[in-house]
Design goal:
alpha/beta; FAD/NAD(P)-binding domain; 8-stranded mixed beta sheet; 4-stranded mixed beta sheet; 10 helices; FAD/NAD-bd_sf; FAD-dep_OxRdtase; oxidoreductase activity; oxidoreductase; Oxidoreductase
């Protein structure tokens, strides 16, 4: 039965906003005409706008909220670039050549992000710390070990298995049965990253408007009329980058993108020396459960931030926060009496294909569907979509540029099926635990 304790005294705004608050931009009138109108001013829209502006295009990014107020400043800041489907499933759905290209492009996307941070002098507390993935049982450990071996041999990524006997060198817990490490993944402060990306985009000439929700996009002659709550714009091209915050202004896309809540809790500052015991390598962390958790040290290495799927669809219920804290304590019993300072959620965009996507419909280009790994995928896919709009003939084709995802049956915007989906994955995780002798 769900716990009914009163809500603890924590903030429901992101921990990241303490150091990098999301603010509205100064009010300015909309331009009458632009070369490219971009819907959304998160990582995707700003990365695309930056590339287009530097190619000489006039660009405006239109955001219904404050720029970055969505997932770009609410995520865990882990540069994972995960692909949700395993290699065998990718081959079955898309064929061997595209499956290999998808996996190889993840390496390019991470390298692109790290190059962007360095060349643009983006100050966002980035650390290439590596990621530890915990195995629930022996079968999971073998799978993680095989994957690490494949990454090392096929893609040249430093990755290796960690047997349970060596686990406490990486993570101060006996909860897992070993795991794996890959060293091409790190962490950053996501709100700072967005603020810096916004700074760079504005300096390059990208126009960005907050409170300019797009209500319709209509084909007019060789271009488009984009109607917003702040006025109308004529644009030669349109790029849609709304991802988990797609609304009814694009009903076609909304039938394909399911917004799922992902929640993160932040602990109070831990006693001196405890972090060195619990997270000695200060790595990003994940695990092998279907409804697995992701966690990391804060940039100052004084707190643990712990996240996972929320399961709720409205309001601010307390149970998802309590669920995260229970699981945090299960992994780290030393945190039984720790106080939480923040608990917040953001929307990730899931869809039936479960891989990021660039596609086109009626001339409008879409860059979307990051499935919870947008820190890496959004800047990369946004830039690739910009190159597509430019007709860049020197561009190597992206493995993610093909048909749109299929519509979700009987879905029109409200994820009514989420309780059933969550129950099914919890069932699979219970089976996984039993199989692992847990």
């Amino acid at each position: 039965m769900p716990e009914t304790n009163p809500a603890p005294a924590h903030k429901t705004t992101p921990f990241w906003w303490e150091a990098a608050p999301v603010r509205p931009l100064p009010e300015k009138s909309l331009p009458a005409t632009v070369d490219v109108a971009i819907i959304g001013a998160g990582y995707t829209g700003l990365s695309a706008g930056l590339h287009l502006a530097r190619a000489g295009r006039s660009v405006v990014c239109l955001d219904k909220m404050n720029p970055g107020e969505g997932a770009s400043s609410r995520n865990g800041g882990i540069t994972s670039g995960n692909i949700r489907l395993d290699h065998a499933t990718l081959v079955r759905r898309f064929g061997e050549p595209r499956a290999m290209a998808i996996e190889a492009e993840g390496k390019k996307a991470r390298e692109f992000l790290y190059h962007l941070l360095a060349t643009e002098n983006i100050a966002c507390d980035f650390s290439l710390s590596g990621r530890f993935s915990g195995a629930l049982g022996p079968d999971d450990y073998e799978s993680l070990a095989r994957t690490a071996e494949k990454l090392e041999k096929k893609l040249g990524i430093e990755a290796y298995a960690v047997p349970q006997s060596e686990q406490r060198n990486y993570l101060g817990t006996d909860f897992y049965r070993g795991g794996s490490v890959r060293m091409d993944i790190g962490g950053l402060q996501p709100a700072k990253f967005h603020a810096e990306l916004l700074r760079v985009a504005l300096a390059a000439g990208v126009q960005v408007r907050s409170g300019a929700a797009v209500t319709s996009v209509e084909k007019v002659g060789s271009g488009y009329q984009v109607t917003t709550e702040a006025g109308r714009i004529s644009a030669r091209q349109v790029l849609a980058c709304t991802n988990g915050y797609t609304d009814n202004s694009d009903r076609w896309l909304r039938r394909r993108m399911v917004p799922i809540r992902s929640r993160i809790i932040a602990t109070e500052e831990l006693p001196e020396g405890l972090m060195a015991t619990l997270m000695p390598k200060l790595m990003m962390c994940s695990e092998t459960r279907n409804l697995g958790f992701y966690y990391r040290p804060s940039p100052d290495n004084k707190r643990i931030l712990f996240g996972g799927r929320d399961g709720s669809t409205s309001g601010e219920p307390i149970e998802p926060t309590l669920h995260l804290k229970r699981n945090l304590i299960e992994i780290f019993p030393e945190l039984k009496d720790v106080t939480l300072t923040h608990s917040w959620f953001g929307h990730v965009a899931m869809h039936r294909d479960m891989i990021p996507r660039i596609f086109e419909r009626d001339g409008v280009v879409y860059a979307t569907g990051f499935c919870g790994s947008g820190v890496v995928w959004a800047p990369w896919i946004g830039t690739q979509a910009a190159r597509k709009l430019l007709g860049d003939k020197d561009m190597e084709p992206s493995a993610f540029d093909f048909r749109p995802p299929s519509a979700v049956p009987f879905y029109t915007g409200k994820p009514w099926f989420m309780p059933g989906v969550m129950a099914w994955y919890r069932h699979l995780d219970r089976k996984l635990m039993r199989r692992a002798g847990r």
